[in-house]
Amino acid sequence: MRAWEVPAVPTLPGKAPLPRIHDTAAGTIVPIEESQAASLYVCGITPYDATHMGHASTYVAFDLLNRAWRDAGVTVTYVQNVTDVDDPLLERATATNVDWQWLAEDQTELFRTDMSALQVLPPAHYVGVVESIQWLFPIVEDLLARGLAYRVHGYTDEQGVVHPDGDIYLDLAAVRALPANEAGYSWEPGQVSHMSREEMLEIFAERGGDPERAGKRDALDPLLWRAAREGEPSWQAGSLGPGRPGWHIECTMIARHFVDGALTVQAGGSDLTFPHHDLGSGHSWAVANRPHARHYAHTGMVGLDGHKMSKSRGNLVLVSKLRAAGVDPAAIRLAIMSQHYRSDWFWTDELLERAIERLDVFRRAVAVADGSDDSAALQALDRTRALLAHDLDAPAALDELQLWAEDALTAAERAEAGEGERIGGGALITDVLSARFGISL
Ligand code: ZN
């Protein structure tokens, strides 16, 4: 589907170092080997509620990675999905009495507008589940044929809900038993999350899994295909019968479909570590006999008033609402980047106030930094590049630019009093903020 418009990205003098990033699977900050071309997949939204600060901070974080690669001369293939059919979307449509397709398109469009306002570089491939079903279902047919997936019988659960025949699950035990590939890689659950089975079982149920489903071979086996239910949308899918795909298979296969070989970085919020990315890597292994990604990167959770921001709690700070209230999107983005992407943090009014003040400092500073000596600006560029290359340390990099801005303002004041020269490099720092941080002054 359509993504959003590409913001202007100025070219900076020199070249940035290759970024290093914290890899959840490795448990440490690692170098990323690709120096020519890299691929990035950030799990997309389920479009049933507008972009909240948790979403925004994730897409801004990996936008920093995308921009770091580009500044280092690396070509980036960026892919993102839209889970435009899924249980929570259908539930919301029913609860609010609107058509689910209308809701999905309406909220996807709002997301595009928010991303555009935040100057997030768009993915080259922005892909919906609905538009992928026709090439996706044969992959599930193949897993069934190879004995890596199985159908369960229908039953009526304790709440009286009828589950029809034909739901299909990935057989994790069979996937684990596949022999290692020629590179010596074989797959195990827990490679990404490092969770124990007990922890997995607990979190699986909290995050959309169905460990209690009758007929499953292992409580953790993930749903590949949901057979058609009364009142739910479904698609004809060859020997699978009518239905729709499960979340992990659609997301991992959209990544596979648009990127040749393992992803350089599979990214998302830390709540996607398990089961989504952990078991998702098993889906790719079962299908393609290779690792899903070389690295897994995760953002911390954003909270409000002492609690994690969540739809169920109703404590969402929406980008669109702030924009409607007249907040400059550049200030929203600066507030997000004042926190390290891996930390859990709370959105506060003070954070936004500080970002608005900082934006003002930057704007005033670049306007008066028109002297002939731009050496301080060039040094600030070098330090910014080094800090961002070290696990995207935007808070420290922005502090560097703030120091430069304060110096520029002081020099301008002195020059006004006839006590020296203005410093130069205002145009360069404007470009640095735009190219590396997505901030337009
Ligand atoms: Zn995903």
Q: First CA to last CA: what distance?
A: 31 Å
**Poorly predicted runs:** none
Overall average pLDDT: 96
Could you give the order of strands across the largest sheet? 5-4-3-12-13
Describe this structure as you would to a colleague.
- By secondary structure, the chain is α/β, with parallel strands linked by helices.
- Helices cover 42% and strands 15% of the residues.
- The protein contains 14 helices and 16 strands.
- The protein has helices at 53-71, 87-95, 100-117, 133-145, 172-176, 197-206, 247-258, 273-288, 319-324, 329-337, 349-368, 375-389, 394-416, 426-437; strands at 20-23, 28-31, 37-42, 75-82, 125-128, 149-152, 155-156, 162-163, 167-170, 223-227, 243-245, 263-269, 293-299, 302-304, 307-308, 345-346.
- The strands form five sheets. Strands 5-4-3-12-13 form a five-stranded parallel sheet, sandwiched between helices. Strands 6-9-10-11 form a four-stranded antiparallel sheet. A three-stranded mixed sheet has the order 15-14-16, with helices on one face.
- Strand 12 (263-269), helix 8 (273-288) and strand 13 form a beta-alpha-beta unit.
- Helix 12 packs antiparallel against helix 13 (394-416) and helix 12 (375-389) packs parallel to helix 14.
- It is elongated, with a radius of gyration of 24 Å.
- The chain starts with 19 loop residues before the first strand and ends with a helix.
- The model has no long low-confidence stretch (mean pLDDT 96).
- Bound molecules: zinc ion (ZN).
Q: Which characteristics define this entry?
A:
alpha/beta; four-stranded antiparallel beta sheet; 14 helices; elongated; binds zinc ion
